[in-house]
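Thread: Newbie trying to understand structure tokens

Hi all, I'm a second-year student working on a class project, and my supervisor (Dr. K.) asked me to get a predicted structure for one chain before our next meeting. I've only ever worked with sequences, so writing a 3D structure as a token string is new to me. If someone could post the tokens and maybe explain what I'm looking at, I'd be very grateful. Here's the chain:
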Amino acid sequence: MTTVRKFQVTFDCADPERVARFWCEVLGYVVPPPPPGFGSWEEFDGSLPAEDQGGAYACVDPEGVGPRLFFQRVPEGKVVKNRV
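---
Reply by user tm_fold:
Sure, no problem. This is what the structure looks like when written as tokens:
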């Protein structure tokens, strides 16, 4: 029996949507469907407080094998080397 572990890798960045769309394209990932009750991610994003709008984006492996990638906006620039 195969065990599946679900996890996500989180990235801090200045422009989550732009970075996420780049990695979706490179890896063949897709944007997951919006939360229930919302017709699109734009509609969901518009329901958030202004300071949180555009603050996060995600992409997933359509085969369900690879990890979910989550990109979150942070105000500060990079100060140390990249770590995973």
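A couple of things are worth pointing out once you decode it. Residues 8-73 form one domain. The CA atoms of residues 45 and 53 lie 5 Å apart. Feel free to ask follow-ups in this thread.
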